[in-house]
Amino acid sequence: MTIDRRTWLTGAAAGVAGMALPVQAAKRHRRIAPSDRVNVAAIGAGGMGAANMEQLTSQNIVAIADPDLSHVAKSFVDSSGAPIAERAALKAAYDKADKYADYRRMLDTRKDIDAVVIATPDQHHAVAAKMAMERGLHVYVQKPLTYTVREARLLDELARTNPRLVTQMGNQGHSGDDGRRVVELIRGGAIGAVREVHVWTNRPIWPQGVARPAALPTPAGFDWDVWLGPATVDWGYNPLYAHFNWRGWQPFGCGALGDMGAHLLDFPVWALEPGLPTRVETRHSAWGENQRTPDAGEGDQRGSYPLATITTFTFGNAKGGPLTITWYDGGLMPPTPPRLPPEAVMKPEGGVMFVGAQGMLMHETYGEKPVLIGDGTAQRAAAIPQSLPRIKDGRQGHEMNWIRAIRGEEAISSPFAVGAPLTETMLLGIVAMRAGQPIEYDGAAGRITNLPDANRYLDRTYRKGWEL
């Protein structure tokens, strides 16, 4: 039996691992007409945040919050220090915007903000999103939506109880034409019934499986305390943590699976509607060495994630029957299928392979360039009509889709109702990694049933002042 969204949310209402999920009503919400410009703020304004905000310069960028504005400034120059012409409009908007180190102060100070883009390290996502939503703000949150399973359920419940707020997760492939066609082809039976999917990525492209480095002096102007936010460890500053490499460190990021799972797992989960996994097992190389902190429970703070993993997700309640999705990262890939045609190249950068009863479908990251494999697949595909709406400008229009949805012009592409269960699925792979054993999962209850002690990995503790 498929777990529907109402059943899934029952677990959220009851709480994960016995934790209550308090949800407050939004306090302010401005009705925005199609002719209006949206007042947007950025939480995490450099790096990926700058890439997101670059798509929104047609709106009013009123404020940015980032603990290291010198890092934000690097978003406007190339490696030689020359200005990037394509980002001149963004630089002009940032120059005029109010600037804060701490987004908590920004959210309490600026009362004219309509919407926020959250592109921080993963440990901040849920905290920043909840604060913004409680203030009646629309939110765009980079992937993974949250750092923990409990946080994913909480944000979904908050969005459900405040339906006027427009939410979007930053998995831009969900807006792409190719990815939407993949979903139509799989659902339409182009390759027959699917019971097996293989997913791979070349991530990590940052350090993982390495020892924790020594602390270095924090650069001038970098508010390290704000950067740490809710994280309960302070190992001291090191460039192996900030500003890009945090993805590989367990207190701050969610590793390769958290970084790319929202892009690559999106399409099999979307097309096949398997519900939540019922069993998850992660095999991996060694964790990076770490000195255990006094307040850490067994296995809680293990330093950097393993360099390579294979995670097997079993969906015993999938809509079309039992389904297995296998994830590979760190340069690992699935075996090459027999009789794979020369044009169907399994690119190491990343891809998805659906194995059906009547053929296969393979696509690249973000759902792009789908290839049908097997006799009769092309003919069956040609007869499958378009059934999903297309998003203006495809995956390049993911940010503006959010704006148009705020203005009531277009349906939202990847709201939290989509992003939260997808995030929960991929985070369960990390839970299994931390548990060190296969986990059996009751998605309706939101609990691990075979290893009760592993339920603590569905949640986390928060540093004082950054509680969820």
Automatic annotation (TrEMBL):
It holds the Pfam family GFO_IDH_MocA_C2. Residues 214-268 form the Gfo/Idh/MocA-like oxidoreductase bacterial type C-terminal domain. Residues 38-166 form the Gfo/Idh/MocA-like oxidoreductase N-terminal domain. Gene3D superfamilies: Dihydrodipicolinate Reductase, domain 2 (3.30.360.10), NAD(P)-binding Rossmann-like Domain (3.40.50.720). PROSITE patterns: TAT. This is Gfo/Idh/MocA family oxidoreductase. It comes from Sphingomonas oryzagri.
